[in-house]
Every structure is written in structure tokens, then in C-alpha cells.
Amino acid sequence: MHRKEQAVTERVVLAYSGGLDTSVAIGWIAEETGAEVVAVAVDVGQGGEDLDVIRKRALDCGAVEAEVADAKDEFAERHCLPAIKANALYMDRYPLVSALSRPAIVKHLVAAAHRHGATTVAHGCTGKGNDQVRFEAGIQALGPDLKCIAPVRDYAMTRDKAIAFADKAGLPIATSKKSPYSIDQNVFGRAVETGFLEDIWNAPIEDVYEYTANPALPREADEVVITFEAGVPVAIDGTPVTVLQAIQQLNERAGAQGVGRIDMVEDRLVGIKSREVYEAPGALAVITAHQELENVTVERELARYKRQVEQRWGELVYDGLWFSPLKRALDGFVNEANQHVSGDIRMTLHGGRAVVTGRRSEQSLYDFNLATYDTGDTFDQSKAQGFIDIFALSSKIAAKRDLA
Ligand code: ARG
């Protein structure tokens, strides 16, 4: 039986951005599947258009229902904050901007699918990237009964065909405005790829950047004090802030100093090496501060072990396993390790760098009297020699054998 003849028409929830591809996808999915399309737009700080405008456009493009959600605070608290606590930097550099946003969007998609009785969730990703994995692994974790479709990947909805579709259907969306790049942005940062950047010898031009000023231009330095409580940024220069405000304010101030530009070739989960240019001024400033406060407040063995956990956490999140048991368990570890990460970090923001210049904490493990080389030294140096003799004993015995 053809689906259109079924008593109840199936429904598909579409992750809607308001852009050309997902606007066309509304009608395209309806044609391919015979289903009704419910558009869901989730604002994680992409900037740009008003949510009501986006909602209306979805309806004008043929969605039977359209929902928009301001998820900026939720994204900051539940997705960026765990990444800050984990000092998460994939391949030691990338603060997981897009990887963090997908599970935040997935929560809204699955909730909408359940609310609207949808059987399927659709997204606009291609078949070559990480984001398709993050969407679908997340959907499978939160809604195991839901099916997933991706029109660009599954129905060969190319850009040219999408433009032709939009023109033919008279969709209320500009089809001429063509960015030379593929861009994904949210409150935690911005990712730019494709175009001339695909030649990895080509340097990025200033035109690529939006969140950051050119770090090479002369300007006055900025100094900022970030206060943390148990790993959470709670104040900037003494004024209380939400996590979202902390990231936004640091985006402005660190961005104005050119902090947070990253140009890298990265390993995608699908096996491709790809070149991406990121700018994440707030993320890198707050992680730099958080790392240093950990250096002051976290005991050595815990700190050393946490570095391995951080790397694994970043890989899991990059690979789309946000809702996995291992990621959840590591979150427990990371939260426990952050119990004492409270205090102030002072940083100079200048010339593209965020440099820590001061730390202050009631939870500090830095003991001036143990560290000092001046009067007041309480460290008993006479104990050091015996400690070293025993500490080095096993390698000394081995050396005697190997040098013989
Ligand atoms: N490569 C990054 C990641 O996998 C960002 C992908 C976002 N897309 C883009 N159009 N730049 O997390």
C-alpha cells in the first residue's frame, strides 16, 4: 500500500536551520516519503535571524507544524560547561564547537518527534562528515524507535537541485546568496570549511573570521579576572554571570584581541582528514583559565589521570557518543575532579593569546612555605636524598645489568 493511502499520514521531524537546504528539504521529504514534515529549529547561538522569522518560513515552505526553541542557556549549561570542566580539546586544539551542539539539538528533535507522533527524524547533513553520526547516534540513544533520514545524503539533494526545487516551488528563500564556505556557528565558537581552504597550503584570509579581530593589529591589551566555583565560571571581573554570559562576554573581549583562531587538519570519524578553520575566543579563554585553576587546586595524581580522561572525553564527544555509558561515567569523574576547582584566575588578553598572570584560591594546594627558596621554607630537604635513592632503585638495578 502506498503511504499516501494510509489512514494516518506519517510524520517526520526535520532539524531546521532556516537556510536553503533545510527549507527545500521540507518539500523534498514530503515528496519522497509522503509524510508530513514538522520543522524544529533549535537556537544554540547561531546568531542571525529571529526565531519567529525562521518559524514562519518553515510553514511557508510547507511544514505542517514548526517549533522554535531558544536553547542557548541549556546549551551553555549542559553542553559547554561539561566541556569546560573537561578542558576538552580534540586533537589538543579544537574545543568541539559543532560536536557539542548536536546532542543539544537532538534532545529537542526527539522530544518533538514524541510530541508530534513522528516516526522519523531528518537532518541536513551530508554523508561525509561527523555531524550525521552525532545526530543519528544521539537520536538512536534517546529515541531507539525513531528512523533517521538525511535528504542530502539519502535522496541526492545537491545544492543545484535544491536551488532548482526552491525556484520551481516558489519557496520564500533567497537562492542566490552563496557563501564560498560551509559554516557552523554557536555560542561556543565558529567552524569554517570548504572553498579555497580545501587546499591546505592556502592561508585563511581575514574574510573567513567573524568572532575574532585580526590579532596582528596593534591595540591595548585587556585584563580579565574569571571566578570559578567547582569548575563553573560564575563571575567576570567580580560581576556574577551565568555560564552563557561568561562565554558570551569572553567571546567579545577575547575575540576583540584576536584570541581563539585555530587552523587545523583534523581526523574525522569517517576516516577523512579535513581542514577546518575555527574561532572560539570565549571557549579557549575560559578553558585556559580553568586549566590553570586546576593546576593550583587539583592534587597531582588526580590531575595527571584527568588529562587522559579529558582526551578520551573529547574523542567520545567528537565521535558522536555524547549519550553513551562511557561518556556518562567520565562525566562523573570530571565532576568529582572539579569539586575544589574554585577561585580566581587573572588573564591578559592580547595579540591573539590569553595568558594567565595570576591565581587566587581558598582551595589552593600551593603552599608558599613549601615552595619558597627564601626564609620561611618548611620543606625538609634532608629527606630528599633518601626518597630519590628508593624512588630510582628499580631503574638503577636494571641499569647495572644493562650497562654491564
Ligand atoms: N569539523 C568540525 C566537527 O566535526 C565542524 C563541522 C561543522 N561544519 C562546518 N560546516 N564547518 O566538529
Automatic annotation (TrEMBL):
<dbReference type="InterPro" id="IPR014729">
    <property type="entry name" value="Rossmann-like_a/b/a_fold"/>
</dbReference>
<dbReference type="InterPro" id="IPR048268">
    <property type="entry name" value="Arginosuc_syn_C"/>
</dbReference>
<dbReference type="GO" id="GO:0005737">
    <property type="term" value="C:cytoplasm"/>
</dbReference>
<feature type="domain" description="Arginosuccinate synthase-like N-terminal">
    <location>
        <begin position="11"/>
        <end position="172"/>
    </location>
</feature>
<comment type="similarity">
    <text>Belongs to the argininosuccinate synthase family. Type 1 subfamily.</text>
</comment>
<feature type="binding site">
    <location>
        <begin position="15"/>
        <end position="23"/>
    </location>
    <ligand>
        <name>ATP</name>
    </ligand>
</feature>
<dbReference type="InterPro" id="IPR024074">
    <property type="entry name" value="AS_cat/multimer_dom_body"/>
</dbReference>
<dbReference type="InterPro" id="IPR018223">
    <property type="entry name" value="Arginosuc_synth_CS"/>
</dbReference>
<feature type="binding site">
    <location>
        <position position="134"/>
    </location>
    <ligand>
        <name>L-citrulline</name>
    </ligand>
</feature>
<keyword id="KW-0028">Amino-acid biosynthesis</keyword>
<feature type="binding site">
    <location>
        <position position="126"/>
    </location>
    <ligand>
        <name>L-aspartate</name>
    </ligand>
</feature>
<dbReference type="GO" id="GO:0006526">
    <property type="term" value="P:L-arginine biosynthetic process"/>
</dbReference>
<dbReference type="GO" id="GO:0005524">
    <property type="term" value="F:ATP binding"/>
</dbReference>
<dbReference type="Pfam" id="PF20979">
    <property type="entry name" value="Arginosuc_syn_C"/>
</dbReference>
<keyword id="KW-0547">Nucleotide-binding</keyword>
<keyword id="KW-0436">Ligase</keyword>
<protein>
    <recommendedName>
        <fullName>Argininosuccinate synthase</fullName>
        <ecNumber>6.3.4.5</ecNumber>
    </recommendedName>
</protein>
<feature type="binding site">
    <location>
        <position position="278"/>
    </location>
    <ligand>
        <name>L-citrulline</name>
    </ligand>
</feature>
<feature type="binding site">
    <location>
        <position position="130"/>
    </location>
    <ligand>
        <name>L-aspartate</name>
    </ligand>
</feature>
<dbReference type="GO" id="GO:0004055">
    <property type="term" value="F:argininosuccinate synthase activity"/>
</dbReference>
<comment type="subunit">
    <text>Homotetramer.</text>
</comment>
<keyword id="KW-0055">Arginine biosynthesis</keyword>
<dbReference type="InterPro" id="IPR023434">
    <property type="entry name" value="Arginosuc_synth_type_1_subfam"/>
</dbReference>
<dbReference type="GO" id="GO:0000053">
    <property type="term" value="P:argininosuccinate metabolic process"/>
</dbReference>
<keyword id="KW-0067">ATP-binding</keyword>
<feature type="binding site">
    <location>
        <position position="182"/>
    </location>
    <ligand>
        <name>L-citrulline</name>
    </ligand>
</feature>
<feature type="binding site">
    <location>
        <position position="131"/>
    </location>
    <ligand>
        <name>L-aspartate</name>
    </ligand>
</feature>
<dbReference type="InterPro" id="IPR048267">
    <property type="entry name" value="Arginosuc_syn_N"/>
</dbReference>
<feature type="binding site">
    <location>
        <position position="266"/>
    </location>
    <ligand>
        <name>L-citrulline</name>
    </ligand>
</feature>
<comment type="pathway">
    <text>Amino-acid biosynthesis; L-arginine biosynthesis; L-arginine from L-ornithine and carbamoyl phosphate: step 2/3.</text>
</comment>
<feature type="binding site">
    <location>
        <position position="130"/>
    </location>
    <ligand>
        <name>L-citrulline</name>
    </ligand>
</feature>
<keyword id="KW-0963">Cytoplasm</keyword>
<dbReference type="InterPro" id="IPR001518">
    <property type="entry name" value="Arginosuc_synth"/>
</dbReference>
<feature type="binding site">
    <location>
        <position position="124"/>
    </location>
    <ligand>
        <name>ATP</name>
    </ligand>
</feature>
<feature type="binding site">
    <location>
        <position position="94"/>
    </location>
    <ligand>
        <name>L-citrulline</name>
    </ligand>
</feature>
<dbReference type="Pfam" id="PF00764">
    <property type="entry name" value="Arginosuc_synth"/>
</dbReference>
<feature type="domain" description="Arginosuccinate synthase C-terminal">
    <location>
        <begin position="181"/>
        <end position="397"/>
    </location>
</feature>
<dbReference type="GO" id="GO:0000050">
    <property type="term" value="P:urea cycle"/>
</dbReference>
